[in-house]
Each structure stands twice: as C-alpha cells, then as structure tokens.
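Hi C.,

You asked whether I'd gotten around to modeling the 330-residue construct. I have! Everything is below, sequence then structure, no commentary in between.
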Amino acid sequence: MTAPLDVSGSATEAQPESVLAGAGKDIQGRSLTRIAWMRLRRDKVALAGGGVVVLLILVAIFSSPIIALFGHPPLEFHQDQIDPATLLPKGAAGGMSSDYLLGVEPVNGRDIFSRIVAGAWISLLIGFLATVVSVIIGTVLGVIAGYFGGWVDQVIGRLMDVFLAFPLLVFAIALAGVVPDHGFGLEGNGLRIAMLIFIIGFFSWPSIGRIVRGQTLSLREREFVDAAKSLGARHGYILFREVLPNLMAPILVYATLLIPTNILFEASLSFLGVGITPPTPTWGGMLSEAVRFYTLPHFVIFPGLAIFITVLAFNLFGDGLRDAFDPRAH
C-alpha cells in the first residue's frame, strides 16, 4: 500500500503575487464606450447605414470636384439635349448617357446628377445644424427641469407642451413668406438657410428635452450625485461634471435619429416652395418641379431616392447606436 504524498500548503496554494500577475493578463476593464463599440461592430445593418452616412457627408463636402469629374455645372442649361418639339430630353431613359449619368431635366436640360450632388450639402447642412440647435436647447432645459424639479420642472414641462402643440409647418410657411431679402448680415438663400435652421431647431427641442429630463430624474437619485452633494459640490459642478457626461449616450442616439427628421422637413418645405429659392438645387425642390412631368419617371425617382436613402441610412445607424448603448442588450 502506497503512502499518500505529503503535500505542503505552500505547494497547493497560489501565492498572491502570482495571482495578481496572472489576473492582469486575462481580465481587462471595459468602458461603456468600448462595450457599445463591440456591440455596434456585430450589427452589420447599422454599420452599413453608418457607411452610407459617411459617404453622403463626403459627397456633400467634395461636391464641387465630384461635379467637375462626372457632371456639369448644376445651373447650366443644355438646350442641345432637349427636343424642341416636345421640350423633353432626347433619347431613351430621360437622356441618360456617359456625359449625363442620370439624364437631364425637361425644358432646360440641366444635369440631374450634378443637381442631386449639389443639393446634398444643403439638406445635410440644415439637418445637422438644426439638430445641434435642438440638442443644445433641449439638453440644457431638460437637465435643469429634471435636476431641480418642483416649480422649475412644472414651468419647463408646460413650455414643452406648448412647443409640441405648435403648428410648425404652418408657422414655417407663414414666416417664409415674410422673410426679407436682407437681414442679420445675410441675404438670399443664405438668409433662408439660417431661417430654416432656426425654425426647425428651435421648435424641435421639446422631444429631446423630455428624454433628457427623464434620464436626469433617474441620475439625480444615484449615489455619485449624493456623494458630490455631501462633499459640498455646487449645482453647476454636479450638472456639468456628474450628470451631463452620463447623458451623452442617449443624447447622441436621439440626435442621430433627429437628423433624418429635419432633412425630411427641409425637403417638405422646399417641395411646397417656401424653402430654398430656385434655381439653387435642393432635393425637395427637384421633386416639386418633377410633379409637372410625371410621365418622366427618372425625373422623380432620383431625387426621391436621394431622400429615401439618406433618411434610411440615418435611421438604421441611429437604431444600431441605440441598441449598442442599451445596457439591457446582450
């Protein structure tokens, strides 16, 4: 019979130094941003939407060289491409060719491809800047309402209700009709772009304001806020150093979803003739002009596709961001 081996405690128990040395190799802390990025990378649909968004931004930024390489000046008439008898584009498919990738417009022969590319920067500019205005106003008022509560919350809450009930489209149409040609150091379409950014951004903040208020109501009861108060921190320090950084994820997600809404609203105003003044190309304005030539599907389809793809890409990317930052996601 073999005697059992005598194993000492030092041989069976791991030393603290070796445990700590090995733990650092296998266990790594992950921030919320890193976890969200890992989830987003697994969402191929959201990544595809984000890729289209990046492509649209690059097209808007480099619209001039793109037009110079693949098209013609967006305001240039090409009467040689128009049949004088019918005032319609010559050839099949609305005049599509290697020189005119998406064909030409009836009557004047302007290059549709160039006008869609040139109109991208107006739609994205208004969509982005109007969202920035909404996010700033909604975040500030939402944080104040949620943190202080009481009568402050009641006043801001009623103000949100008033703005949400405001007939924004009717107001925009009425205001566009009385905008002067000059004002605030701007003129022409520059003034109209500033007006659209102000109207869309200023009257869209209550939606994000309610989301921020709800999140702030939850955050103000957390332990780190109580700890900051017990150490004598001022309200401003708590709001901007403790509460606001924890609101960046929902703000980013909602801002991404708000951009396509603002782009659609700008296109609607241009379609109704109260947006950007022609002949400056806009997607909504092109659709408005195409209504008269409903027998030419290419004239309607391409600007409509530009709006559809842009809105869809932002929505897919925004949905992916929302799922990535959702702590309940697995």
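If it helps when you're writing up: The chain has 15 helices and two strands.

Thanks,
B.
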